């Protein structure tokens, strides 16, 4: 079994490492990618292709794990070269998933969505998949993946993911805003403590992780919220989703230049304060 990844960020590199440990041949292409991405690929010890065309032609399953804004463009570029099954695992709306997958000429497609954290759960992260070749993708469960088929119609998995993202990203934005204000007053730790009394066990750790992830992945979060807004706007005015989207755009501008995941959320608040003082 040969599995290829278009894009090699946190999702792809984590899944690739797990699949490699279970005896799967894993491929990617890092031409034109950042030095950090190339270093991660080399450390993962997977097979490197010279081009995305070679990657598409070589793999039994090709997984697109880029950014929401790149999903359609990437599928256009490799569509006529894909030999196996093409899985779009990006955080995109059902309509974007349909558009991206329409460019795969062999028609062997499905859209997939990761539920929860790949960083925490690794290869066992729960993945929902829908589309005509969902069952074939789910065969990767024999290599340690945790894939659930939810239908043969493209877009169902993407919709569930985005509805979930609307909730989780909105909560993260509100939490970040709340705790930053408490931090400025010197009562952030106490605030977390007393919120935890009502939110229950595990809240403290989850809250800190949400704040850090919101900053580190703010650009991607902003792109994801564009897809969320498109979906929810079909049935409502998406006021809360639009507000969350604007929050992540602003946060991205405020913390630009953060390259390593901080251990403490206060490091992120200090970065914001330092930038505000300079301005």
From TrEMBL:
Could you give a GO molecular-function term held by this entry?
Answer: nucleosome binding
Q: In Gene Ontology terms, what is a biological process of this protein?
A: transcription elongation-coupled chromatin remodeling
- Residue intervals of the Pyrroline-5-carboxylate reductase catalytic N-terminal domain: 2-91
| GO CC field | chromatin
Pfam families per UniProt: DUF1932, F420_oxidored
**What PANTHER family does the record point to?**
CYTOKINE-LIKE NUCLEAR FACTOR N-PAC (PTHR43580:SF2), OXIDOREDUCTASE GLYR1-RELATED (PTHR43580)
Please give the name of this protein. Phosphogluconate dehydrogenase
Query: To which species is this protein native?
Result: Methanobacterium bryantii
